[in-house]
Here is the input.
Amino acid sequence: MRYLTSGTAPVRLALCAALVWLGLGGAAVAQVTFNVEGRGQGSVRINLNLDDSNGGNRGELISLARFVQRDLHSSGFFSIAVLPPGTRSTQSNWQSTEVAAYTTRLSSTTSGPSGRIVSVELNDAGTPKTLLRRQFQVSENDAPLIGHTISDILYQYFVGREGYFATKIAYVRQVRNGNRRQFEIVSSYVDGSDLQVLTTSSAELASPRLSADGNTLVYVRISNERPQLFFSDFNSGRNGAVFRDRELRFGPDIGPDGTIFYTKVINGNADIYRARIGSGAETRLTFAPSIETASSVSPDGSRMAYITDGTGALRIVVQDLAGGSSRTIGASGYYGSPSWSPDGTMLAFTKQGGGTFSIGVVSLDTLEERLLSTSYFEEHPVWAKNGRVLLFERSGRSGESGGGSSLWQVDLDSAGLYRLPLETPASDPVWFAK
Here is the structure.
């Protein structure tokens, strides 16, 4: 991955998007004006001025504006109307609609053989006061990296919480190699750009999970209808089966210390186990005669959530890993895919009922549930690092237009739904923690 520096502190970045046409102006300062209307937090209109007066490349600045526009739109907080280059809304219009008016000026100048110094300045259009000024340096001309960083800066200023655009996701996709079907676990920005293949197989791949530092990938490979756990260590280059026997193991997760959690089937009974990669030693964590699966470890490693059918329906159980105490969550319906929020206060889940699937969240303090999306099939919710955005998989009925699996995101505050514009069907998402 690439690095971006602000001052001297390195910041690890990733995640992406492509955009609609913005066009080039003929003036020294290319004017690209769009409206940004906040939902539930008042309306904000922004003039995004692309400043090429210091030798910046005009086409490069337009490319950055495309990423910023897509990011802000995808969050669900902003509806964006692009006006012709050079067109500016009048101050009287701003005043008549009683919306706040801001001007953001972007500039990019070369630094070294391939680096860039990027400046972002935000001003209130009614006063000369500068509200925000950021300058950062990148080691190469990477439009997605720079564009998403700008988006994070503006998102955090207007929405008041940490941005998530400059992060990456991983997911499973299927490709054709001649007449053969190939499975890949890949990482990319949200629009599919900067795609990197993490692992590939002719056997079906599922359930990728990444360690907190992003250096270890654990996943399921299904060969001859037998699921097995595999891993890839990106630092050492080691990879292969986690266990050498033929036992059935699936549904992995990775704790903050690198311990893996998974379901193991013995004599037809499925329970949750944990182990360290390379040790061969396993610890059994559940002992009920029912099915226990889909384990998810809390961010601090003290608890795990999983699914059980011990009550006759699929419910979520949260278990204390030190003391073994547990409680059941979910009053009705059939639950699946529990996933911890970054602060450990909520769980995301899948809920089935009435012939549909829903993505929801539940507070562990109040046990209050909230459903965010419902369709024919939805599964595998995972959290962005800011704890307010979920990524999940959605599929339509077989034979329907768009019936293949796709990835969607939803914002807990705006409830805005957005389909990721990936080129191939995608499933089993996971968000990089950094």
